[in-house]
Inverse folding.
């Protein structure tokens, strides 16, 4: 029996993935700025627009969590998994995510945000 409603899980997962997407985009932006590309500006613009979109979604996610008295805490990274604790309505639930799954989902989101028009 799960005490955390299924409709809340995407919001928890957004709190896991969106900060990772922002970190990757910011690191990539630095690489473009330092790189020897002939025309840097178009690439940097795409990355900056993607960062803005992710930040907007992250802000909405944080607002949702706050309004519904939800929290998430990153736990230990053990071998091939990372543990997170989801808090909701006085209950907590521990979930483990495979690091491969975290990487793959982050890559999917990165692709989605970079291809937004």
């Amino acid at each position: 029996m799960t005490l955390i409603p299924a409709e809340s899980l995407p919001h928890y997962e957004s709190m896991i993935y969106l900060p990772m997407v922002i970190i990757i985009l910011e690191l990539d932006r630095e690489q473009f700025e330092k790189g020897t590309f002939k025309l840097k500006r178009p690439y940097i613009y795409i990355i900056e627009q993607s960062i803005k979109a992710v930040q907007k979604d992250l802000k909405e996610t944080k607002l949702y969590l706050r309004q519904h008295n939800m929290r998430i805490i990153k736990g230990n990274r053990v071998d091939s998994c990372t543990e997170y604790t989801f808090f909701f309505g006085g209950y907590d639930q521990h979930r483990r995510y495979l690091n491969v799954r975290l990487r793959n989902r982050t890559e999917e989101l990165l692709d989605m945000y970079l291809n937004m028009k």
Summary: Residues 4 and 88 are 6 Å apart (CA to CA). The first helix runs from residue 9 to 34.
